[in-house]
Amino acid sequence: MFHLRTCAAKLRPLTASQTVKTFSQNRPAAARTFQPIRCYTAPVAAEPFLSGTSSNYVEEMYYAWLENPKSVHKSWDIFFRNTNAGAPPGTAYQSPLPLSSGALSAIAQAQSLVDVQPNVDKLVEDHLAVQSLIRAYQIRGHHVAQLDPLGILDADLDSSVPADIISSTDKLDLAVFKDRLRMLTVGGFYGLHESDLDKVFQLPTTTFIGGKESALPLREIIRRLEMAYCQHIGVEFMFINDLEQCQWIRQKFETPGIMQFTNEEKRTLLARLVRSTRFEEFLQRKWSSEKRFGLEGCEVLIPALKTIIDKSSENGVDYVIMGMPHRGRLNVLANVIRKELEQIFCQFDSKLEAADEGSGDVKYHLGMYHRRINRVTDRNITLSLVANPSHLEAADPVVMGKTKAEQFYCGDTEGKKVMSILLHGDAAFAGQGIVYETFHLSDLPSYTTHGTVHVVVNNQIGFTTDPRMARSSPYPTDVARVVNAPIFHVNSDDPEAVMYVCNVAAEWRSTFHKDVVVDLVCYRRNGHNEMDEPMFTQPLMYKQIRKQKPVLQKYAELLVSQGVVNQPEYEEEISKYDKICEEAFARSKDEKILHIKHWLDSPWPGFFTLDGQPRSMSCPSTGLTEDVLMHIGSVASSVPVENFTIHGGLSRILKTRGELVKNRTVDWALAEYMAFGSLLKEGIHIRLSGQDVERGTFSHRHHVLHDQNVDKRTCIPMNHLWPNQAPYTVCNSSLSEYGVLGFELGFAMASPNALVLWEAQFGDFHNTAQCIIDQFICPGQAKWVRQNGIVLLLPHGMEGMGPEHSSARPERFLQMCNDDPDVLPDLEEANFDINQLYDCNWVVVNCSSPGNFFHVLRRQILLPFRKPLIVFTPKSLLRHPEARTSFDEMLPGTHFQRVIPENGPASQNPENVKRLLFCTGKVYYDLTRERAARNMTAEVAITRLEQLSPFPFDLLLKEVQRYPNAELAWCQEEHKNQGYYDYVKPRLRTTISRARPVWYAGRDPAAAPATGNKKTHVTELQRLLDTAFNLDAFKNLV
Ligand SMILES: Cc1ncc(C[n+]2csc(CCOP(=O)(O)OP(=O)(O)O)c2C)c(N)n1
C-alpha cells in the first residue's frame, strides 16, 4: 500500500470567510498520480501530524483526491498537488521553513507549483483539529452517553469525561462546559478557542454528521456529534479495523435525523411493551411468592428481540435459534416465541403431575421450538430456544453448534437463512470464560455461524454484586472487542433508541455476517428473584429504583403527548392483553400432566414414531461386506487426486496401510476409516472436531493430506469414497474444550442422522469442558427429553507420561451412569442389550481391539435411538502389532462385542482355570504378555469388558459360570480409587449374587492419576502384574 509520509508540520485553523475564498480558487485541473518516490523514504518526523491514526486519515483522503480532487478540502488538494509535483518531505506546507538553503529552494519550488494563499497552514491545522475532535467523539463519545436509566452509575464504571471531547451533556453544567473548553483551548489540545465555535469547518469524509452539508460551524459540529454519540446510545466501534464497516456504522448513527419511526411503528412498540410489562404483572398477581426471574426494569427486551427477528426475517432469515439465561425467560417464551400461555401458567401449579419422560427441569430452563408466521414480514419463521442449565453462558456454544448444523443441513453456507441470538446477563457476560471461547469460534471456517446477535440484559447488578466488584473492564461487553464486534450500548428507558440499535444490529449481521452486541443498560426492579430483598446490599440503588417510573408508563405518556395514541386506546391495549392472560389462566387449570416433550427445542421429525418411541428395539449387524472394506481401505491408503505431492513419511504410512488392507486387517486408524467411510456411504454426515484431529494428536489419522509443494492445497480422501456420499467434515478446533465440546453437542442436537465426534487432545483435558458433560451430556435427556448421539473420544492409558496425559478419568463418567449397581436386571428379557442401552443416560466403552471400535462407532448410528457415547481411546495401541483386527471380524453378521471372552487354552478346560481376570482396554495386552511369559495360559483366563456401561450383566454372568473354580479378580492399570474398580466391583458382585469375592489387582489409591517418574511407573506396573498372576496373592485376605 502507498503510504503518505510527507506533509507540512504545522497546521492552523482558518476562518469561514477564508475557507470560502480558498474554495473558489486554485481548483486543480485534474487528478494526478502521486509519485511513489514520495512515500517510504520520507522520515515520519518530518510530518509530525502523520503519525499514528492521522496518517490513515490522510491516506484515505489521498485516495479520495485521486478519484476526485474536489472531494477533499482545498488545503489538502493543494498539499497533494504540491507533494505530487515533487515538494520534498516535510516542506509541502511548512512555514516558516528551517533556513537551510536546500529547504528554502525546496519550498520555493513547491510554492511555485501552486499559488498557496498565506494562511493555508492554519487552515490545515484547523481542519486536523476538528477532524481529531470528530474522531474523539467517534472513539470515546460512548463514555459520556447517558446510558443508565437510573442516572446513578456510569455504564463504563467511570464518571470522568475523556479529556479530548467537549461534552455539554448532562454530566457537565454550562460553567463546567466553558471551563472545559477553556482548558482544551489554553491547554492546546486542539488549539481551538471559544471564538472558533462559530467558524465553519470542512467535514472530513469519515463523518456523516453534515448530512447534505459538507461544512459546518464548530458549534454545530459539536452539537451533532453529541446527538450522535452522547445521548441514549453509546456506540463502540472504532476498534474495528475495517474502513467500510466503520463507515457503515458512522452513517447509521451520525446521519442527522436518521432515527425516525412512523406512528405505526411507535404503536407496535407500545403494544409490545404492554405485553412484556403486563405479562410480568400478571405472574406477580397470580403467583406472588414464586420465583420467575422477572424482566421488570428491562421490559424493553421483548420489543428489542422482536425487532431483531423482524428485521432479520425481512432480510431472509427463516430460522432463529436462541439461547438465554433465567432473566425474563418466561416472558420471551410467551411473547417472542409465542408458547401457549396456558402451558406456561400451568407450570406454576404445584399439583401438576410429571409425565413418565424423565426427571424434568424447572420452568425457566426449558427449551422450545415453534414455527409460525412473522406478522410484520408475513414470512414463515421458526424460533427455537435452547434448553439450558443454571450454569450461566454454558448454552452459548451449544446454540452456536446447533445453528451451524441447521445451516449445514439446509445448505445455508453464508448464514442467510439461519441465525442465532444469544442473550446474556451483564455479570455473566463479563465473568464467564466460555463467552470468550465462544467468540473465538465465531470466525473459524468450520465453526462460524456467520454472525450472532448478542443482547445483554445489563441490569447493573449480578445477584447481589455491584459491577464495580464484578469486572475489571469498563463495560461488561468488552470481551466482544476481541472479534471486532461493534457494541451498541443503549439506555433501556428509551424504547425508540433500543429499537433503533436492534434494527442496526440485525442489519449489521445480515450485511457483514459478523457478531454484534446490543447492551441494554437497564435496572432490576426486584431482587435477584422475586423473593430476594435487594435493599440489604444495594440500598441507594433501590431507593432510586423505587422512584423510577416503569418504561411502559413513560413511553405511553410520550406517545399520548405526541398524539400518536390516546389514553383510551392505550388502556384498551392493556385490558386486551390482560384478558388474554386471564383466559389462558382459566384454561391452564385443565392441564393435569406436564409433558416435557412439549418443551423440546430440537424435534427430529421422522426419526421416532408419532408418539415419540423408537421405530424398533433392535440393532442390525454392524459388519460390512468385503468389497466395502476393501474399497475404503484402498482409498484410505492412497492419494485420490492427481499431481498431489505428500510428505515422504506419510507415503510410508499409507504404504503400511495398504499392506494391512492387502492382509485383510485393520489397525485403529483404519478401523475408524472403515466406520466413517461406510456411514458416509449410507448418507450419514460425519463431523470430527477437536484439537489437531485432522492429523491426529498421535499422528495416526491423517485425514487431511497436505500438498508439499502448493500452499494450502489439501485433500480429504474420505470425501472421495463414493459418488453420492454424505460429506465428511474434519476440523482442527481452537484450543478450547468447553466451547468446542458445547458446540459439537449443539451440532449433534440438530439431527439424529449424523455422527458427531469430539476428540480431546488427551482424555484428561475433558475436565475443562466438565460443565458440558455434567450439565448437558450426562443428564440432557432426563432433564429435557432430548436425545443426543455425540461421541467423545478420550485418549487414555497409563504409559509413563506423568500425572497429566494419562487418565481420561473413567471413574467420573462411570460414577454418573444411571444403572443400579445392586439390582440384577431381568437377563431373560428380549433384546436385553438394546433395552439396557435405551434406558441408560450414556454409553461408556473402552475397546481393546480396532474391530470393536469400528463396530461401536457404526452401532452408534444403527441404533434406533441416540445416546451419548464415551470412548476411552488408546495411545500406544494405535501402533501395537497385536492390536489388529481381521476383516473376518468385521463382515456382515458381526457385531460390537460388549464382552470379549477368553478364547485361548484356558477356555478349552475352564474347570482347570484358577483365576478369572476381568479387565478393560490396554492392560489386556500387558496381562497376556505376562501370562505367556509365566506360562499360565491354562490357569488364568482373561475376559475383556468392552462396554463398561450399561454393564453387561448377562455376558459376565456367563463368563463367571464357565469358570466355576476360578478366583475372580478385577485388574486395572489405574489407581484403585480411580479407573473402573468402584463401578465394576459392586455390579460384578450383584451378577454373582455376591457368592464369591471379587479381588483387586492394580495400583494403590493415589491423589494424582499417575506418577511423574518413569521408573516408578514401570515398578508399579510390574507389581500389579505380579498380583494378577500370583495365585496366592489373595489367599490370606478374606
Ligand atoms: C456459572 C454460574 N455461576 C453462578 C451462578 C449463580 N447465579 C445465578 S444468577 C447469578 C447472577 C447473574 O447476574 P447477571 O449475569 O448480571 O444476570 P442477572 O441475574 O442480573 O439478570 C449468579 C451468580 C450461575 N447460575 N451460574
In short:
The chain is α/β, with parallel strands linked by helices and 1038 residues long. It is built from 34 helices and 28 strands.
Name its key features.
8-stranded mixed beta sheet, 1038 residues, 34 helices, 7-stranded mixed beta sheet, binds thiamine diphosphate, 38% helix, globular, alpha/beta
Bound molecules: thiamine diphosphate
Mean pLDDT: 88
Largest sheet: 8 strands, mixed
Number of strands: 28
Low-confidence stretches: 1-49, 94-116
Strand content: 5-15%
In DSSP terms (H or I, runs of 4 or more residues), the helix count works out at 34
Structural class of the helix and strand makeup? Answer: alpha/beta
Give me the Rg, rounded: 35 Å
Strand order of the largest sheet: 3-10-11-9-8-4-7-6
Shape: globular
Explain what you see.
With 1038 residues, this protein is α/β, with parallel strands linked by helices. The chain contains 34 helices and 28 strands. It has an eight-stranded mixed beta sheet, with helices on both faces. The protein is globular, with a radius of gyration of 35 Å. The N terminus is likely disordered.
Architecture blueprint of SSEs:
Elements: H1 16-24, H2 52-67, H3 74-84, H4 101-113, H5 120-140, H6 174-186, E1 200-202, E2 215-217, H7 218-229, E3 233-236, H8 243-254, H9 263-286, H10 301-314, E4 319-323, H11 329-335, H12 341-345, E5 353-354, E6 368-374, E7 379-385, H13 395-409, E8 418-425, H14 426-431, H15 433-439, E9 452-458, H16 467-470, E10 487-491, H17 495-512, E11 516-521, H18 539-547, H19 551-562, H20 567-588, E12 593-594, H21 626-636, H22 648-662, E13 665-666, H23 668-681, E14 685-690, E15 705-706, E16 714-715, E17 728-732, H24 738-750, E18 754-759, H25 770-777, H26 780-784, E19 791-795, H27 810-815, H28 832-839, E20 843-845, H29 850-862, E21 869-873, E22 885-886, E23 899-900, H30 905-908, E24 915-919, H31 923-933, E25 940-945, E26 947-949, H32 953-962, E27 967-975, H33 981-991, E28 998-1003, H34 1014-1029
Parallel strand pairs: 4-7, 4-8, 5-12, 8-9, 9-11, 10-11, 14-17, 14-18, 18-19, 19-21, 20-21, 24-25, 24-27, 27-28
Antiparallel strand pairs: 1-2, 3-10, 6-7, 13-22, 15-16, 20-26, 23-25
Bound molecules: thiamine diphosphate (TPP).
